[in-house]
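Morning. Coffee machine broken again, so started the prediction first thing and wrote up yesterday's gels while waiting. Chain of 92 residues, entered below exactly as on the submission form.
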Amino acid sequence: MITVLVSHPLGVQITDKTLELLGRKCKGLASLNLNGCKRITPTGVRILLNTTPHLWHLILLNCEKITQRDSESILRQFPNITRNSPARAPSI
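Came back before lunch.
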C-alpha cells in the first residue's frame, strides 16, 4: 500500500490532470493527503477515486475548489473513503 503526502509549495501545482495520472500509475495508493491543493476540483477527485481501488484515506483540507457539499457527495459516491476532518471543513 502506498501513502502520499503533498505539501506546499508542490500542492499549488497539483491539478485534476495530476490526479488522473496518479490514479493511472499508483493502483496501490491507500492514503493521500492533498491539503492545500487549490487547483483540484471534485471532477478530478472522482477520477482519482474511480481508478484507485485501495484508496481509503483522503484529506482535502484547504482545497478551494472543493466545497462541503462536494465532499459530502463524494463520500456518498465512494463509501469506502473515511472521513477524519471537522464537519465544518470542506474536506474528506
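The first helix runs from residue 16 to 25. Going to sketch it on the whiteboard this afternoon.
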